[in-house]
Amino acid sequence: MSMLQSRPTLTASNAQQLKAAAFKQQLPRAVRSCPQVPRCQAAPEGPPGFNAAKDTQDSYQFVYPFGWQEVSVDGTDVVYKDIIEPLESASVTISKTDKASVTEFGNPLEVAQQLTNEVLTPRSQQAKVLGVNKREIDGRTNHFMSLSLQTKAKHRYIRHALAVVTVGNGKFYTLTTGSNENRWSKMKERLVEVVKSFQVSERFTG
What we know:
By secondary structure, the chain is α+β, with helices and mostly antiparallel strands. It has helices spanning 14-26, 108-120, 184-197; strands spanning 5-6, 40-43, 50-55, 60-65, 69-71, 78-81, 89-96, 125-137, 140-151, 158-168, 171-180, 199-200. It has a single domain (5-200), classed as Mog1/PsbP, alpha/beta/alpha sandwich (Protein Transport Mog1p, Chain A, 3-Layer(aba) Sandwich). The chain is 19% helix and 39% strand. The relative contact order is 0.19.
């Protein structure tokens, strides 16, 4: 069974629209710039074909495909990307929150719609939620989503993106990865591995 189960797109109710303003305050568009000295260090425990990254200061870790390189991008905590295929990347953003769980923001579809409208989609792009799901990982709820992002520019492209969001340590974590729609069939399994690997802990040791 696919980790991301397709669901029909729902029209936002008036109540959801009112909820958007409060949600947006919890998820500012610009979080902070990636520091000059990387805190997210490569670790040897990634599965074959992947490197593992661990940020001991912000207490998260994930894996990314071998060959991707770390780059500095404003508004993100860390970014790894393929230097040949620029739409293939994985990024983490973090913002402060007073919520104890991602479920306090709503169900997976509500969270996906708000993230898509308020955070993940630049004005130059159109977005569509393709599917959502949730999993409990070490007692922490993670919301997963599949998205289609299409540019409005003259030279249009479609990026198929996957994201996972969770709450811990007084922070709202978002990991986003994806590829050009033309390469989705080739990259799908690896990108699913990226979002499935994302883990937040109260504390990392060692």
